[in-house]
Please model this.
Amino acid sequence: MLFNTQHGNPQHFLLHGERGIGKSSLSYMHEFAASGQIQPWEGERFNFLTVSLLLEPSDTYISIIRKLGSTLRRSLANHNKLEARAKEVWDFLTRWEVMGVKYRELDAAVSPSELLDELAESYSTACSRISDTLAGILVLIDEADKPPATANLGALLKGLTERLTRTTPNTICFGLAGISSVIDTIRQSHESALRLFTSFDLRPLSREESVEVIRNGLNKSREKTSLKIRISPEAEQFIALYSEGYPHFIQQFAYCAFEADKDNDIDLDDVKRGAWGEHGAFQQLGTKYFQGLYFDRIGSDDYRQVLRYMSEHLDGWVSKEDIRSHAKLKPSTLNNAIKALRDRQIIVPQPGQRGMYRLPTKSFAAWIRAFTNFPGSPNLE
Ligand SMILES: Nc1ncnc2c1ncn2[C@@H]1O[C@H](COP(=O)(O)OP(=O)(O)OP(=O)(O)O)[C@@H](O)[C@H]1O
Ligand SMILES: [Mg+2]
Model:
């Protein structure tokens, strides 16, 4: 995609997947490859200017435009090869930012499309001024799922890329990363905005890849500390099995096992202690998946029974009847458990269908499965 962009045929992409699947990490690698700091997966090194920004729940259409403008300005200012050219572009963007401020004060009187025109002009000016030194611009927008639908990210990017198509050189690639719900948000914003992007759905790692992650981590620590830390094949397999391919889980279980280890030889016991210890892997991951204090209460047998059975279906729909017959709970207990889990948005009810529920994500199901099956639990045995 960068290769095509560099030749004036920009291709934009969307990395999406569950929380902790590795979207930001992959964008980061991509940024390194684009700027020429590392060799790309194939072909020659690139030399793009990279502009990377993070979106937030408080972002609006206007604030995203401003972020796109001010991050461009910062990237230009920080790029060491652009000194000679920078002033010219800098002046331009300063003017733009000043206008942006003016617009913000006027706010209601601003025409968003005028602002977008300004932004497109900034990008295209920057692109042409740097074209003798750099191949183009890669704009990476992470946490793209965060702004509300009203920020109209899809329409914004569609408007921006369309404006840029009419300029030369058109060597700007936009890459988005976010939780898969971003697809719906973009579609809602503009029905054809999604067509701009080639989308990549990030999936869990294979068992072999998971083991490779653990080994890579240990190799890095050996390089840094010159300590020879070993890990037993059993411990590796155990971490890989219970992580179900979620990189974030692998990192957490492996890190906690590393912390629990005392003799530079990580074995199964270290993995278990790391997982269940105070501030251990389950607690860390649990706080991420259950909001706040609720995590402590998941120790309750009833809730756990329900979640455990549901997790066998990953994030697929399960009927209350089905749960009742498998979780072996009294009807009133089951009703209470379901109500509590539902109120806390830990399970999702099927719209228009009574008594059908599912877990919100596959990674959450993987967490529940590990939590309820992982040996060595202090209070589960
Ligand atoms: N391919 C990989 N190999 C090893 N570790 C990885 C890999 N991908 C991600 N990780 C690790 O997994 C963790 C989560 O990754 P990252 O933050 O990139 O995920 P994310 O999808 O952006 O998460 P979020 O949805 O929370 O933003 C990090 O600790 C990261 O280092
Ligand atoms: Mg991320």
Observations:
- Strands lie at 12-17, 48-54, 136-142, 172-179, 197-201, 230-231, 265-266, 318-319, 348-349, 356-358.
- The pocket of magnesium ion (ligand 2) is lined by residues 23-24, 142 (CB under 6 Å).
- The chain has three domains: 2-201, 207-284, 295-373.
- The CA atoms of residues 210 and 240 lie 5 Å apart.
